[in-house]
Amino acid sequence: MSPAAPAHDDSIDRLDHLEAVSARLLERCRAAGASQAEVSCSEERGLNVSVRMGSVETVESTRDRGIAVTVYFGQRKGSASTADLREESLQATVDQACAIARFTEDDPAAGLADASLMATDLREFDGWHPWALDADRAVDLALACETAGRDADARIANSDGASVGSGESLSVYANSHGFAGRDRSTQHSIGCALIAGQGDSMQRDGWYSLALAESDLASPASIGRRAAERALSRLAPRQIATGEYPVLFASEMARSLIGHLLGAVSGGALYRRASFLVDSAGTQLFPGWFSIHERPFLPRGLRSAAFDAEGVATRESALVESGVLQRYVLGSYSARKLGLATTANAGGVHNLEVAANAGDLEAMLQGMGRGLLVTELMGQGVNNITGDYSRGAAGFWIEDGAISHAVDGITIAGNLRAIFQAIEAVGSDVDPRSHVRTGSILVGRMTVAGGE
């Protein structure tokens, strides 16, 4: 893709302005008698276009701003927000937060994260790559993507459209400890969804590319062709017999398994005792070779950050090591509720990496021999309290280490504890489009409900 002409980058000036607003708000909170206060200010800009069957469907340009103020009077908390930067609106927001705090009950877990934990090394991690993209150029890229897909094969009968998006985000978090942290990031995407076949035999699939820098995106034509290949591969699905089989989650589906782990070890679920992994820190959840590490300092990482949503310094650490759950995922509030220390995960995790012990997808298929390759999951079907797992799925039946035919309308089921223990391999085919970086995951045995 040929880059557009660079535009003036005013991000530093805008961050300076947001930081100044944050400082004024904190001073107003102190003047109102708050014992502690924190402020989050953000600005976002974006352009999104979509096309379908060669015609423009939508062109959307967005600009959003948000300012959130939280005050603490001892252990009573109040929060209010606004998008208006006028001085009277800022004062009204502080007044409203203070009024709420005065009428709430004491919460022993309330308050800022400890001052000693605030980040001091406020580096950037190469996450700011504005794309000087105008609507006409975005439409051209979307049309090129869809056209490449539609022209790939005569069996591509229809399209669900193609889209191009580009966004910028600026944020400042500041608190009464004297901490002020700034972040700026960009994210760009190109995607396409196509329909193959006719009548009752139609199948839909798609593909997309996502990156922080436009130069890291796949070309529109390659995305369109990949979408076509995926849609075509799903034609003429066949039923399989219900039974227990090895199940290989393609990398873009495998990260959902890690997502279920994160949901179960997050502080909110744990202190409410709404997780099947309550009191599981230090226990063996996975095979002995399995590990997950948090890498918050990756250059161009999708969730790289020097500090979390409370200003706490992030750090590289193991979530799972040698199959053992090393810790939970906590901010300061949930940590206090559990009698533990924050893990610098207020706002979420920062770039999880699941260590591979196998080769690419083709090698994993050969190693599996016979079973199910899952390329799509449908429905929720996961009980976070019991760990019971049951989801609709589609993908491919594997025989002799190679794809035999497409399958759909099936259900895969088990319990997440047993699924985690039954993981036999993690591939090297990492999907880069997520902050959960994992290759394909092979589960040795799951219940598969087919149509026979």
From TrEMBL:
InterPro entries: Metalloprtase-TldD/E_C, Metalloprtase-TldD/E_cen_dom, Metalloprtase-TldD/E_N, PmbA, TldD/PmbA_N, TldD/PmbA_sf
Organism per entry: Luteimonas notoginsengisoli
Start and end residues of each Metalloprotease TldD/E central domain: 129-235
Annotated Gene3D superfamilies: PmbA/TldD superfamily
UniProt KW Hydrolase keyword: yes
A GO molecular-function descriptor: metallopeptidase activity
Residue intervals of the Metalloprotease TldD/E C-terminal domain: 242-450
Pfam entry (one): PmbA_TldD_2nd
Enzyme's top EC category: hydrolase
Keyword Hydrolase assigned: yes
Gene expressing this chain: pmbA
Assigned keywords, A-Z: Hydrolase, Metalloprotease, Protease
Name this polypeptide is given: Metalloprotease PmbA
